Amino acid sequence: MRELIKQEQLVTIVPKDFKNSNKGKVLEVSQEGFSMELKYKPEGLIQNHVCEFYSLTDNGYLYFESYIQSLENNIIKIANPVKHRFLQRRKYTRVKFVENIELIFEKEVHKARTLDLSAGGMKLQTSENLDIEKAYKVVIKLSNEQEVKCKYQLIRVERDDNGLYTISGRFTQLSNIDKMVLVQYCMQKEMENQNK
Q: Which residue ranges in the chain fall short of pLDDT 50?
């Protein structure tokens, strides 16, 4: 674990209930695992329960599952994982995501179809010429029970020969919980695709 996790490294911890996601800095690394100081009060984190861990490293996005050995105030000790994997080098995992979506600015409603999705933004296609200066409200429906609401800021617009616009953009006004929901969703989809 010493080659993967280092002191001061930022690590995100995601228990089964997304809402109790947390993050913190690594304090110490040993043969048995590592300890970290959490940024937020550790609500919903339970000793001996398996959680998912994510950390951006020089080698890409590190992902592993492990459990909390001990929990005292904001300091937790994590057992060494049995295995780990590097998901990809980009900051956020990007997955194919094809859904109909609406982009709303004041009373304007524009229809579009998403092409891909990450915790940072998405690519979509539309027949409408959108204003690159505007930030549009969007609701991203991940499942029947789960959706993410935020604003979508256009970054790049390309028009093809058929008159369709392909738009790349980033999310703004995204809560930490919604960002973790998107990170988790995209990483799970990526792993499902790799295991096919």
A: 88-89
What are the tens digits of pLDDT across the range 67-108?
999 999 899 999 988 777 665 445 677 899 999 999 999 999
Q: Cα(126)–Cα(111) distance, rounded to whole angstroms? A: 7
Alpha carbon of residue 117 to chain centroid: 10
- DSSP letters, the chain, are -TTT--TT-EEEEE-SSGGG-EEEEEEEE-SSEEEEEESS--TT--TT-EEEEEEEETTEEEEEEEEEEEEETTEEEEEPPS-EEE--SSSS--EE---EEEEEETTEEEEEEEEEE-SSEEEEEESS---TT-EEEEEEE-SSS-EEEEEEEEEEEEE-TTSPEEEEEEEES--HHHHHHHHHHHHHHHHHHHT-
Q: Which two tokens stand for residue 137?
A: 């409200």
Give residue for tokens 């890409």.
Answer: 60
CB 158 within 8 A of CB 34: no
149-164 tens-digit pLDDT: 999 999 889 888 888 9
pLDDT of 188 reads: 79
Rounded distance, CA 121 to CA 72, Å? 36
pLDDT > 70 fraction of the chain, expressed in percent and rounded = 92
Distances (CA, A) of 103 to 100, 128, 154, 173, 175: 10, 11, 11, 15, 19
